[in-house]
Amino acid sequence: MSGHSKWHNIRVKKTAADAKRGKVFTRHAKLIEIAAQRGGDPNMNPSLRTAIDNAKADSVPNANIERAIKKGSGELKGDRMEEIVYAAYGPGNTAMIIECLTDNKNRTLGNVRTILSKNGANFAESSSVLWMFQRAGIVSARNEKLKMENGKLSDDVELGLIDAGAQDIETDDDMVTVTTDASDWTKVRDLLKQKGFTIESAGLKYVPTQKAAINDVETARKLLAVIEAVEEDDDVSDVHTNADISEAVLGAM
């Protein structure tokens, strides 16, 4: 099964690189804080339990997790954290969805607008872009054994993933990326853990249903520059695009 182009794996690998810089800790803390607004007990709040599990998978210290829970549940004072989604059009008529976690919407909106303008992209109404995407579960994981097995999953793992709700499965070197329905990604994540995979990222993502073809290196580079500039903002948690970069362009980058 295959559904994602190598573009997705480029995004995943960049996310892994970003984790080394420490921004990932802040992102997880914000997600935990938002989830804890619906209750600070992970046994009674599945969203909080998932946020904590994802944070621990990225080695977020327990002290950071506990502090975020207390902020979200109101035990510690502070401005309320919110999730905001913005939309934009980038190079090559590509659509972008920008997810933010912020305690100051005016600051975040101003920063995102400025970054887009400076990098050749245009702010857009969310409704004009969201229809080109659907919400889906995406789980990306690594296993060194895949290298020895020529990047192929064993039959029992692949069948297990399908039974758990996998809609698309892609392998690349030692990485597997699985797309699921929005309600099934936790089952896929747990199965991969049981099979000895290291989870790189897991959760709900915006997956494009209407793609924009990118067939030249210059446009691809401009698009990457926009995305990287937006991702540098502290309030931005994720950026999604409907860009479909050709194999030839990927190979030339």
The poorly predicted ranges are: 1-5
Give the CA-CA distance, first to last residue.
Answer: 26 Å
Which range best describes the helical content: under 10%, 10-25%, 25-40%, 40-55%, 55-70% or over 70%?
40-55%
Number of strands: 10
| Apparent shape | globular
Assembly classification: single chain
Please summarize the sheet with the most strands: 4 strands, antiparallel
CATH architecture of the largest domain: 2-Layer Sandwich
Sheet with most strands: strand arrangement: 3-1-2-9
Structural class: alpha+beta
In the CATH scheme, the class of the largest domain would be Alpha Beta
Domain count:
3
Overall pLDDT metric? 87
Following the backbone from N to C, one meets helices and strands in this order, namely HHHHEEHEHEHHEEHEEHEEH
What proportion of the residues form beta strands (DSSP E)? Answer: 25-35%
